[in-house]
Amino acid sequence: NFLLNLVQALRGSDQAEADVIDRFEQLLMISHYYCTRAACRQAPALQSIAVKISVAMLRHTDVVPVDKGYYEAGMDLRGLGRESEAFVILNHYLDVCEAIEEGSGNLVDHSDLSSTDFPSSVPIPAELHLNNELNLHEEIREWVLAVSMDQKVDQVLPTDDRNLYESSLGISDQACLVSGYPVMGRQPVVFQRTHRLANRDAWSKLTVAARMAPQTDIPSVIEFIEKWCGPANFLSG
User: Fold this and answer.
1) What is the value of pTM for the model shown?
2) What domain of life does the native source organism fall in (predicted)?
């Protein structure tokens, strides 16, 4: 709510510069997705949405520490058994970690991610996200090495009919407010005040989970979205 109030105040100010507003709106969006992911992890039916958020957050690794982002997305994909994608993401995580240890982002090869909207030029953190959990870091290294020798696992990111990785936003795509993935299909949910969108399936799952598990943080996520973007009370197209 603090960031939302700040963004609204900046938008109402005649003195706020556009790039400052854009920056704080990006921070608001990132915070929203982190909160939504945490809430989704409280409901088994929403685990797939939580994983989508982790992957979609990689487009914000110019703000989110890059090794943290790739670690979380890779481990979430691995947890769902999506080994090909997990391999690519965690292999990139290891490349980033090597760059952190060497103090140079020039060591990071982005070619395996050419079908994504993940930024290739990002700040290199001062220390590893897993600096205090090096055993886990080493386990990831061993897993990536093992998968690299498994010919049954495709070691590339799959692409869709846009020739993009599924989480990536094309030029005309808008991110789903629930999952961060591109809004696809007919009749997405539209939020009245801002005309932001959500995939109908993701919003439906979120609202059902809120009714089924009112003790979780999911109802609060829905309340925040509607406070921020307006009621989800009509559909486009």
Assistant:
1) 0.92
2) Eukaryota
